[in-house]
Amino acid sequence: MTMTDFHQEANSLRQEKKYDEALPLYEQLWTEKGDQYDGAGLLQCLRKTGDIEKAIPLAEELIKKYPDFSWVKNEAIWTLISGKLNKFNENSSLEDILDVANEIMDLRPEGVAAKTVVFRVLKAAKEAGKWDVVHEWANKLDPDKLNTTPMTDEKGREGWSDQSLWYNYKCKSLIEQDRPDETLQLIDQVIEKYPKQRKFLLRLKALALHKIKRLDEAEECYKDLCGVMKPDWWLLQEYARVINDRGDKKAAIKLMCQAAISNTKLDLMVTLFHEMGLLFKEIGGKDAARAHLALSTLIRQERGWSVPRIISDSITELNRIIGNDDIPDSIKDAISLCRKEWENILGTSTSSQRKPRRGLTGKVQFGSSERPFCFISGDLNESFFCFKSDLPADTKDGDIVSFNAMPSFDKKKNAESWKAVNIVKRS
Fold it and tell me: From its phi and psi, is residue 129 left (phi > 0), alpha (psi between -120 and 50) or beta?
């Protein structure tokens, strides 16, 4: 077989995606001829067969030899993406990711390749809180050229598109760099284009309005965001900050109580408890202030986090005023004191008077696919509320499940209710 025959056979196998069969032919061609076409073909076969250890040094060699050959450049770009960039995980440093990303961007990737590199940096920079990096790298893409088709999860539910996600990164970076006017201008241009992401963009608009003290407009945004059956606790916290800045401290406290009582993950709410403590202190609720500041402190200490000096100084000051008796010394005691305050302010019955129920059985009733929650129908036509995300992953409508029930409160009906937890699918 001549070298021309080898080349034709290798190309034919590669075009048929028979990379394992084409690989040894390209290796021989590269060894004996060493031209740019054989090198690019070999690199593609190495990449497609997953032999990254050989692919990366070959990519670097080919780029030096043939920097202007588009096939070599494209194969090198995707080799570095799959062999280096995609190897990073959530523990990788932003600096390491940037080193590789810049190496790839020097090759001037286009289209999907450029988007892949930039979005990897955007994600890492966001997680690191480096919003100047987010802003810089977002500017490397033209949003008008990004895909507008929403991505879907394993259940077929639509989410963000590349384009809407880009706008989210861009707007958030502008806010974090204290450029709220630019944020508002950009959001007003695009918010109606993405109805399913409206909540997130409207929230960024509210933050921007708050920054420039357009409090009436910010309040209207948060009224919209929180005017649902179960608003996110962190939105209620932000809403409370706006109301507090407007001077209505009692209304702000009430919103904070609503936020606190609607979430059970205490470590996420240390800042909320801190803010509640200081606000209770401002309005003269000394015992409530100390309880919330103590709760924030105890959670921080349990997690090994530092305690801001304003918290410890405030607790010391409150102890001098009201004495050292009844200081909560455990998270359990502190949360009990705080919860009584929340329920008193919100006017709800204390759920602690009703004991959890265990070992219940019922049938799952999904209801509307648009709703994030559903119900479990138990004996005697009793209904138990639960979030679909709390169900086992493979649960279907009508499945029989076992579960426990925790006391809850239905604000819409203004009545006590039950929430299903620890749900297990029955075989």
Answer: left
Nearest of 52, 15, 6, 60 to residue 33 by alpha carbon: 6
Closest listed residue to residue 161, CA positions, set 192, 187, 194:
194
CB 299 within 8 A of CB 270: yes
Contacts of 308 (CB under 8 A, 6+ apart): 274
Helix 180-190 with 162-176: angle, nearest 10 deg? 160
pTM: 0.75
Burial 129-140, CB ≥16 within 10 A → b, else e: ebbebbbebbee
CA distance 75 to 230: 49
And the tokens for 11?
């190309």
* 117, 101 contact by CB (below 8 A): yes
Burial class (CB in 10 A: 0-12, 13-18, 19+), 425: middle
How far lies 245's CA from each of 113, 189, 279, 281, 300, in Å? 46, 28, 11, 16, 27
What is the token pair recorded at 122?
Answer: 């955007």
- φ and ψ of 103, to 5 deg: -60, -40
In this predicted model, what pLDDT tens digit does every residue of 361-402 receive, in sequence order?
A: 999 999 888 888 999 998 767 889 999 988 998 899 999 999
153-157, 257-261, 387-391: the lowest-pLDDT one: 153-157
